[in-house]
Amino acid sequence: MAEAVIVASGLTKVYRMGDVEVQALRGLSLQIDKGEVVAIVGPSGSGKSTLMNILGCLDRPTDGEYTLDGEQVAKLSDDQLAVVRNHKVGFIFQSFNLLSRATALSNVELPLRYSGMTEGRRERARQCLIAVGLESRMSHKPYELSGGQQQRVAIARALVNNPAIIMADEPTGNLDSKVGHEIMELLLNLNRDSGTTLIIVTHDPKIAAQTQRTIHIRDGVVDTEPE
After folding, report:
1. What is the mean pLDDT of each run of 10 residues along the chain (227 residues)?
2. What predicted TM-score, i.e. pTM, was given to this entire model?
3. Which CATH number describes the domain made up of 4-102+162-222?
4. Closest CA relative to residue 40, chosen from 175, 222, 191
5. Which residues does 20 contact at the CB level (< 8 Å), separation at least 6?
């Protein structure tokens, strides 16, 4: 029987803007098993970005239960969420989010610095860059790297803490189709080789088609009958 790494039940999220309430999530429930490759898709305003922020421990739900890798996180404080996020979630963003003045190696080391790791930190970062094919680019800064290489640095950074899940938000959105295909192959190979759970938030049906399962979000809930 598959082991669940994410279990969300009855998630709601309400944003208050003055006297107006906007309900972004409306009792959403889902489960993602360890080692799965899942796409989360939905139109603008569907609630998928809100869901991503909650699943990635960047935000808390207004109500509902959320268990990540066996730990209930829905009611944690901001500081507690930050600790869980650093240890259990690796993020890959469309815009790479690299420090412009830091080398590739220093960018990958950053999560280890936040986690307090000292011994073996540089070697761990080196091994992650080697894993994504950047052994000859470790001392390069982002402006010295192509878009595809920058995204590989971001993937190495996401892997460095051995997270329970990797969450990729439009990971190929700023790349041409050839490089985007290479990045998807890299992510899928990482899943096959190490069993890392991979959640991809995307608008691209071609990207979603490469995953094992697609979760459609509409009007703040899982759409069980997508068009």
Report:
1. 90 92 94 96 91 93 95 91 91 90 96 86 94 94 95 94 92 89 92 92 92 95 84
2. 0.91
3. 3.40.50.300
4. 222
5. none
